[in-house]
Amino acid sequence: MNYDMIMLKNAVRMNKSAKILSRELQRLAIQSYDTLHWRDGTMGQVAAMGALTQDISRLRLFWDSVVGALKRISPAERALLVAVYLKCCDKQRLADRFGVSVSTVYRKLFVARKHFCAALQKMGCDEQWFQQNYGDFDWLVRRR
Q: Using CA atoms, how far apart are residues 117 and 94, in angstroms rounded to an integer?
């Protein structure tokens, strides 16, 4: 499994999801002042907010791991990975913009991914860590 590719391709999605869940947590916290609307009472509120907080923490850990690994590689490699995987730029357009062949872009991308994966592993984010923390996520959802 190329967990490093999954992390790069889904980092933005995980960050957006964390922000959405944070807003939901705020809504629940505000709603908790009015316990008349909560069917399970105070303990139900606490359990719901605890579950949301745990989900937010997992999503933010994912995002922070990607950002941390990107910071550990060279600026040129970081810019290439961000352009291709986080901003979804076309490889042909990148080749045209920098006046290089597409095969050069792919070669540089391969090297950048290798360094990104090494940076993840140095941070303790290896394949086993990924499987333990994010093995239950559905990674087949299409990105827009």
A: 22
Return the CATH architecture of domain 3-134: Up-down Bundle (1.20)
Q: The whole model's pTM is what? A: 0.81
Quick one: residue 125, left, alpha or beta (phi over 0 = left, psi -120 to 50 = alpha)?
beta
CA separation for the pair 136, 93 (Å, rounded): 35
Percent of the chain with pLDDT over 90: 57
Kindly calculate the radius of gyration of the chain based on its CA atoms and give it in whole angstroms. Answer: 19
CB atoms closer than 10 angstroms to residue 17: 18
Read off the pLDDT of residues 5-32 as tens digits, 9 standing for 90 and up: 899 999 999 999 999 999 988 887 777 6
Domain boundaries, the chain: 3-134
